[in-house]
Amino acid sequence: MTSQAPPARQMKGQTMTTPGTNRFAVRLRRTRPASQGGGPVAAAPYPVAGQAATTAGALRATANLIQRSAATGLSVTCFDEFIQILVTEHYGDAPARAAVVARLAGCFGSIAVQQDGHRDGSSCITASGNAGGLHVEVFTPLTVQKAGTGPGGEALLAVAPDGRTVRVVPPHDLPAGYRWLTDLDPSSAASPGRRTTRTPGRGRQARA
Questions:
Q1: Is the whole-model pTM more than 0.90?
Q2: Domains, in order of start, for the chain
Q3: Strands 153-159, 146-150: parallel, antiparallel or unpaired by DSSP?
Q4: Buried-most residue among 32, 68, 121, 150 (CB within 10 A)?
C-alpha cells in the first residue's frame, strides 16, 4: 500500500509545505473571517506602491544614497508613488546646488540636466532615478535672468541655438531649441545679442 504525504498544515501568517515536496510557500491572508465564508488570498508578489512598508523601504534606500553623496541642505518629500528631493538655497548658490544634484544623479546612475518651462519662465536642474522600487526626482530651482520691463511687462533672457542672448517678452513662450539664461550663466552674457560661452540647448548637463 502506497503511503501518502500528510497535507500541508496552515499556521497563522504562513503556509507550511508538505514535507518532501518542492513547492514554494505562499503567505496567505483572509479577506473575511472564516465564519463569514472568507477564503485565503495570496499576498501581492511585489511591493505595492502606497503601502507603508514600500514607502519606508524607499525612504531608507534614499537615505543611503544621500549619505553616499554627502549632500546636505535637502528637503525630502515622500508621495505614494515617488520621492522628491529638493536641494534648497540653504546649501548655497546655484552652481553649488546644481553640483549636489549632479552628485546625487551619479549615485542613481543618471545625469543632471537643465529643464526649462516653455510657458512659465521657470528653470531648474533636475535628475531622476530609482530607490527601493520607487521613482526619485532630485531638483533645485534656478533664477531666470531678466532684461528689464517694457510695455508688455517684464522680459526674460534666453539663449538661442547659435549662442546669442535674446529677450523673451510676456507671455514668456520659450521657442523650441532655446533655453533660459539663468543664474548658472555669467552675468556678462545678459546683454541681448551677446554670445554665451556655455553650450546652448534645453538639456544642458550639470557638472559636479
A1: no
A2: 52-142 (3.30.460), 146-190 (no CATH)
A3: antiparallel
A4: 121
